[in-house]
Amino acid sequence: MTGYNRVLLKLSGEVFGGGKVGIDPDVVQRIAHEIAEVVQTGTQVAVVTGGGNFFRGAELQQRGMDRVRADYMGMLGIVMNCLALQDFLEKLGVDTRVQTAITMGQVAEPYVPRRAIRHMEKGRVVIFGAGMGMPFFSTDTVAVQRALESRCEVVLYDKSGVDGIYSADPKKDPSATKFDELTYDEAISRGLQIMDQTAFTLCSENKLPMIVFGMADEGAILKAVRGEKIGTLVHP
Ligand code: UDP
């Protein structure tokens, strides 16, 4: 394995908050450093951020909110993570553009896929925010859609708290075992909960590999980009 030329990195909201609500600047700075290292190698990077450190629509629905409105709140939360990451990347001298699926001209460009590709070709990191701009989606699925449309070769998923895909949730089941590799058919038939099934299906149909890992492992992004063994590789 020789590594990848263009990757899409999906960062969970949880990692931005360091496990709490809001943003932990120290953590975001560390992530920015790791992304900067990758950019220096010449690999083109796009990022999709989650927003679970602010709001998850499904959780707010359980507490009595209208799902659609709650999902829009979720999408707005995601944008705050994008802006924080942009800030730390630019402090490191990495040119960055945020593109949002919900137009907000004062803080970000609108989502224009061809322009996003052009930014990456120029060495800029493109951060896709506000999810798909539509309720009822998760950012895991958005990551696949953006990776496909911007012609990335792989989706790298940070899943905070775990270092790959396990046969069951390792926090609840101590007998759970980690997979080094899986096919999409296996992942779907086992009903693995770590990822949205839609994300698995979309990757499978379009033959896009994914690597699932945890950011707790220092230098994880660079290792994944270089094609070193890390986390779990899921392939067609
Ligand atoms: N969301 C949405 N549409 C999208 C992407 C996200 O409605 O296309 C909302 C949804 O409420 C979700 C929240 O934004 O719960 C935060 O995203 P997600 O839960 O995927 O973040 P993560 O779990 O990665 O932190």
From TrEMBL:
InterPro entries: AceGlu_kinase-like_sf, Asp/Glu/Uridylate_kinase, Uridylate_kinase, Uridylate_kinase_bac. Its EC number is 2.7.4.22. It is found in: Cytoplasm. ATP binds at K10, L11, S12, G13, G52, R56, Y166, D169. Its main location: cytoplasm. Belongs to the UMP kinase family. This is Uridylate kinase. The lineage of its organism: Bacteria, Bacillati, Actinomycetota, Actinomycetes, Propionibacteriales.
